[in-house]
Specification:
By secondary structure, the protein is an alpha/beta fold. It is about 40% helix and about 15% strand.
Length: about 180
């Protein structure tokens, strides 16, 4: 009778690697009709793509239509941001629940353009993260430095601040699927 080993074999690099994830942020570039056409094309072109997770983040107005086109495919659909509050007088914002109701399964938070043009802060990202997690959206939390910060050798400090500020107050379990 063979003796079972109590030691664990080290995992190979392939076994410990995370599955690659590619997300396309369509920003404010496509109408609903254009999103539908692009989604149809991606559904065909990526039908045989295995070993990588793919998502698209169309404009808010096209999320439901894009979800419908991509139904049955491996391509996930997400929002480009969400507000941290469930509802309220926040003109121009979208609640995480609204994204989920439209069929989105993930959401981009803290994108550099949101930080630059809409003055989003680490605290804002933190609130938005709470909203996303509350309704079960998988968050894609963006961090990164500006060119000025990079040239001033502040990359690590900026990213550390953004990660700590954006994730502050959440448990490891809550953040396990980032």
């Amino acid at each position: 009778m063979s003796r079972l080993s109590t030691t664990h074999e080290p995992k190979t690099k392939v076994e410990t690697m995370r599955r690659p994830f590619i997300a396309g942020n369509w920003k404010m570039h496509k109408t609903i009709g254009e999103c539908v056409q692009l989604a149809k094309l991606l559904k065909v072109k990526l039908a045989d793509s295995h070993g990588v997770d793919v998502a698209v983040c169309p404009p808010f107005t096209a999320i439901a239509a894009t979800v419908e086109v991509l139904r049955g495919s491996r391509i996930r659909v997400g929002g480009q941001t969400c507000h941290g509050e469930a509802s309220g007088a926040f003109t121009g914002e979208v609640a995480a629940e609204m994204l989920a109701n439209a069929g989105a399964t993930l959401v981009i938070l803290g994108h550099s353009e949101r930080r630059q043009y809409f003055a989003e802060t680490d605290e804002t990202v933190n609130g938005r993260l709470a909203g996303a997690l509350r309704v079960g959206l998988r968050p894609i939390v963006c961090v990164g430095e500006t060119l000025e910060q990079r040239e001033a050798s502040k990359t690590f400090d900026v990213i550390e601040r953004q990660v700590r500020g954006g994730l502050c107050g959440f448990s490891a379990a809550e953040l396990s699927d980032l």
